[in-house]
UniProtKB/TrEMBL annotation:
Residues 5-256 form the Thiolase N-terminal domain. Residues 264-385 form the Thiolase C-terminal domain. This is Acetyl-CoA C-acetyltransferase. Gene3D superfamilies: 3.40.47.10. Keywords: Acyltransferase, Transferase. InterPro entries: Thiolase, Thiolase-like, Thiolase_C, Thiolase_CS, Thiolase_N. Belongs to the thiolase-like superfamily. Thiolase family. Transmembrane segments: none annotated. It holds the Pfam family Thiolase_C.
Length: 387
């Protein structure tokens, strides 16, 4: 079976809710990334066999197949097909897996995996507007698990309680995310991975958006400790939770045949892909067993991996992952995570992959691992080799 290679990877800088990207339609953000990927790879856009786009809240401006809309908003030929997928927060990471599987099988040679999400214009939960019937979860499902609903926030609090994480430990993690993100921006670590977005400021000034808007450059232990708990008696605050974010990201995936035919230069090779599912109630703990399975399938140990990206949906998630996996915290989210940089839901998968690839190459490192928790108790794991 052929290998799968990533030959281009890019993302927009994140925009805060109601912030610098609020004026952009999510399909247009996706289209901008598609154009950037084609330009970065130096490939004829007509060579793209398919576009697989992840998006979580497929309602409003993200309804009616936003993947196809992104193609139509781009300079790609209208003959390029697309599909929109939802594996919750792992949507574009799963898009990458589907793209890799397609080119490895030889059924397609050049596929874009990407994601877009405007959490300003299409608020989280909009797709759950009650209609006729019982709602998203049937009574049979709720009865099976003895709950009145499923909540990622509750799952995060359950993890904190299970592992004995205190408010103070979570706050320290949140502060470190801010510090690493601020340092990455100041050092120019994101420069090569970002696609500029043209915006007009409230003052009417034309600018390019190139700095993740949510990062608190002045964050301190005192400021984070002052943030109110989200629920009385809990441990989580807004400072230890991922930020609502607007953005888009993507990677261009090819096989060896396309590498040669289009004279492309690979950035990374897909080494291993895994997806697992577990308890839908605690929900966010699944990256732990998913990583254990992924490493076993790849014949690797965590010590073989140079850098990891574990999505910071809530601080207890990567902390639990570190503890059980026995991973080195100095290799985790080295340029900050979603607590500082934002979590644009369906775009986060290829966003994290873009950052992981560029961080590995900048450091001259070889193997990277990416995982994230996903609604319903699912988790994807991708292991790559930087080239």
């Amino acid at each position: 079976m052929s290998e799968a290679y990533i030959v281009a990877a890019t993302r927009t800088a994140g925009g805060r809710r109601g912030g610098r990207l609020a004026g952009w339609h999510p399909a247009d953000l996706g289209g901008l990334v598609l154009d950037s990927l084609v330009s970065r790879a130096g490939i004829d856009p007509a060579a793209i066999d398919d576009v697989i786009l992840g998006c979580v809240t497929q309602a409003g401006e993200q309804s009616l197949h936003v993947g196809r809309s992104a193609v139509l908003a781009s300079s790609l030929p209208i003959s390029v097909p697309a599909v929109t997928i939802d594996r919750q927060c792992g949507s574009s990471q799963q898009a990458l897996h589907f793209a890799a599987q397609a080119v490895m099988s030889g059924t397609q040679d050049v596929v874009i995996a990407c994601g877009t999400e405007s959490m300003t214009r299409v608020p989280m939960g909009l797709a759950m507007t009650p209609g006729v019937g019982e709602g998203a979860w049937s009574q049979k499902i709720l009865s099976r698990f003895g709950v009145d609903g499923f909540s990622q926030f509750k799952g995060a609090e359950m993890i904190a309680a299970k592992y004995g994480f205190t408010r103070e430990r979570l706050d320290a993690f949140g502060l470190e995310s801010q510090r690493r993100a601020a340092a990455a921006i100041k050092s120019g670590a994101f420069a090569d991975e970002l696609t500029a977005v043209d915006i007009v400021t409230p003052e009417g000034k034309a600018e390019q958006h190139l700095i993740d808007e949510g990062v608190r450059f002045d964050a301190s232990a005192e400021s984070i400790a002052s943030v109110k708990l989200l629920v009385e008696g809990g441990t989580l605050t807004a400072a230890t939770s991922s930020q609502i974010c607007d953005g888009a990201s993507g990677v261009l995936v090819v096989n060896e045949r396309a590498l040669k035919a289009h004279n492309l230069t690979p950035l990374a090779r897909i080494h291993s892909m895994t997806v697992t599912a577990g308890d839908p109630v605690i929900m966010l703990e699944e990256p732990v067993p998913a990583t254990q399975r992924a490493l076993a399938r790849a014949g690797m140990k965590i010590g073989d991996v140079d850098l990891y990206e574990v999505n910071e949906a809530f601080a207890p998630v990567p902390l639990a992952w570190l503890e059980v996996i026995g991973a080195d915290p100095e290799k985790l989210n080295v340029n900050g995570g979603a607590i500082a940089l934002g979590h644009p839901l369906g775009a986060s998968g290829t966003k994290l992959m873009t950052t992981l690839i560029h961080a590995l190459r900048a450091r001259g490192k070889r193997y990277g691992l990416q995982t994230m928790c996903e609604g319903g108790g699912i988790a994807n794991v991708t292991i790559i080799e930087a080239l």
